[in-house]
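Now for our specimen.

. . .
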Amino acid sequence: MAEDAEESATTEEPFRMTANAQKMKRIGSSEYESLARAAAIELYPDVNSSAMALCFNLIRAANRMTTDMEVSVHRPMGISFAGYRLLFTIKSVGQVHPNELARLSSVSTASIASLLNTLAKSGLVTRAPDPEDKRKTVVQLSDEGEQMVADLFQINNQREQAWAAGLTETEASILAELLRKLLLHHPAPRTS
């Protein structure tokens, strides 16, 4: 009898999970922000909600845009978003050392060698000894890299325009200026 009850409970469990899954609904962006704010207050009652909302939404927007650019623009062209950032950075600054390239393009120094190897194998960049310091290497675009970044930039910018269309031109300009200001601000390192 106990076995029958146990077996009955086991066979009913998938039905309960299915019923619970049916009760779950898709959480919208605004609702998620409200739920996150409530969770933050529960975790830390002295939370600075404005600072949290700024960082929370900035990171969410950046992640969403990055993923969209990767899927809509870069992968179809046969390159990663990180690879595109490297190509665009080299196009912007010219010959550059790998460490400086990593810093400017927001790619980790651990990843830079692998990315540069991939771009070099694809014929998009060349590496040569630095004429002023033979111990260092400089990276520059090849002719193929110049063409790739030109082709990608146009498509990338069209996608940027699609994202920016959610704001007025004035709002986009103000947001860009505020983001520049935020990027120039460097909080003191966190101490224990």
